[in-house]
Amino acid sequence: MREFNYARADSTRQAVSTHGRNDQAAYLAGGTTLLDLVKIDIMRPEQVVDINRLDLGGIETLDDGRVRIGALVTNTALARDERIQRDYAVLSEALLSGATTQLRNKATTAGNVMQRVRCPYFRDGVSSCNKREPGSGCAAIEGHNRSVHAVLGTSEHCIATHPSDMCVAMAAIGATITVEGPDGRREIDFLDFHLLPNDTPEREHNLKPGELITHVTLAAPLENSRSGYLKLRDRASYQFALASSAVIVTLDGDTIVEARVALGGVGTKPWRAFDAEKALKGQQISEATFKRAAEIALQGATPYAHNAFKIPLGQQAIVRNLTTLTA
């Protein structure tokens, strides 16, 4: 039994002040990641700051067409919001493909952004894991690395995939993350928020000590666009993606005017495939066009002993999604 201090904040300022710059403190919202990892002794916070009383549970459309989502909006509420279903179908579909109904009812937007990897070597507490214990090694590289290990963005220090479906959709849409911290407020581009492992896999995100996510703001929807999320997994429910794609396209007849493509299940962070998007833009709808873009999206992928299948599977996720959206 590990003891910790608990405080319930009534304002963002109070939450940030109570947390301070203490790297042994943690914010508590839905708790679906934090409490899980505390129970298995992977996270050991000395101070827990409960933020559930903060006024961060709303969704609003801004004057410029962007949609601002409060940090405490649950995954269920976000997926079922009429604006999200109408203008950002890819996000609603991604949310509804993840976890269970009970978890979606508790999990929050900010918590989803902050969720940690599902690598069993990270979670078992005893295996070598640079993310849990920097400098100890990465047992996954020579171990069983089939389902929750990446082929894009890996390093010799970590190959764990980022587990979020929601974040893959947001990577495709484009978004900014608003944070409050000891040094005030700042905005972070969504694609800059999650960090590649490189030599410092213990650094998973671009937050400074004590900073709290208050909002995620989605870019204005592309006019007359179609979007969808396709998740490929071992079974049809309650599983993390082996490979997934979030695709947004606008068409002029049979010509692709604009395309946005992001991948999940194959990268160490939500993976935006910019080169694939360029390959699609201005091209005629065809299976050949889709396959060429999919091949480009997985260029540079590094397969490991048990997950080489993720390269063609990731390509299939793109081709099938594009085929459905342009039918």
TrEMBL record:
InterPro entries: CO_DH_flav_C, CO_DH_flav_C_dom_sf, Diverse_Substr_Oxidored, FAD-bd_PCMH, FAD-bd_PCMH-like_sf, FAD-bd_PCMH_sub1, FAD-bd_PCMH_sub2, Mopterin_DH_FAD-bd. Residues 1-223 form the FAD-binding PCMH-type domain. Coiled coil: none annotated. SUPFAM superfamilies: CO dehydrogenase flavoprotein C-terminal domain-like, FAD-binding/transporter-associated domain-like. Keywords: FAD, Flavoprotein. The keyword Transport does not apply. Pfam families: CO_deh_flav_C (PF03450), FAD_binding_5 (PF00941). This is FAD-binding PCMH-type domain-containing protein. The lineage of its organism: Bacteria, Pseudomonadati, Pseudomonadota, Gammaproteobacteria, Oceanospirillales.
